[in-house]
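Subject: SETD7 structure
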Amino acid sequence: MLRAEESCLYTEGTWKNGLMEGEMTIHTHGGGFVEGYFHNGVPHGFQREFGINEKLLLGKKSLVFFGRFYRGIRRGFCWKGLFGGGFLVGNVDEETGEFSGPDLAYIYPDFKRVLRGSFKDGVLVSGRMCELNGCDVNKGIHMPTFSHFYGQEYTFDNPTIKMIGLNPLIRDPYEEDNVFVKESLLPQGGEGLFAKKDIQERSVFCLYNGIRIKTSTSASSKLPHSDYRIRLNADIDLDIPHDFITLDKYCATVGHKINHSFTPNSEWTLFEHPRFGIIRGIRAQRKINQSEEILINYHMNLCDSPEWYRVLWIQHQRKKNNSSDAAIARIMDRYYENTGKKIPLPENEELIVPDPVGVQNIDELDDEDLKEI
């Protein structure tokens, strides 16, 4: 029997007295689905959920959840898929079904590194690193086995608009294993980001954390320009305070060192991290060779972009796309027709890249600035 529900596209299965009963398949918006067993209208027994198709998985659906339910509440050992390809696993709280307890583990996307310890409602309380050794199968569920702990203790950094994190100088070990920072190979590029080893296509290998700026507050427009401000989602921007743009002040993540190119080898994605929460990740568009510089398209609006960006854009149109001045002028005219905004022509085509500037005057914000408009 098929039935449409408000929270889904349609449901396949059996209803008893108007309630879902037995094996069901629920097709959700965006191409995802839930498969599992129900009793008296609530999940009861094995269940697995897959999310929407993601480019990360080359057309495959991503696992959102796998585990067991008891009368509508998660029970026992469960897997929770996170943005970016990591997983939170372990025995959930028996009363609430939340990922809370003294022995849960965050498995990094490489399925090698693991941050294991205490979590509360899916948020890291305290943990240390170990490695994934393998998996045992217990009553149909894969249960990972881990190595001994090593290294220091990690906690949730709790970034806010006024604090980038509790431990700004403690590197993320997964990212540190993938990238390093040195002088860029680009003209006037300053510091750049490089691959420490071969990075496989579609893998998320680098992180971009920052302070959180709610776009619905007056602080969002009151803060001065920053070269590091990027969009996290419709509600929040990430930014790097000016006092933290150097690695001796902030290196917990180093994604802010990546340089721009109109022919990039990487792209932005979302990443859910036990220390930083939801942040931006950097994903390889193709295989990136060891010691190769990592480049990304900043995707700035041309009408609002700095002059150096527009100079590079014109150079790209001419050299890579073989565009004539007339063709570039037509592109700019179409941009105006579509947006109502004109692209300012650079005064000249000499590339002059100023030193990058992080966000400033954060401490001057008051409570009114932080209220929703």
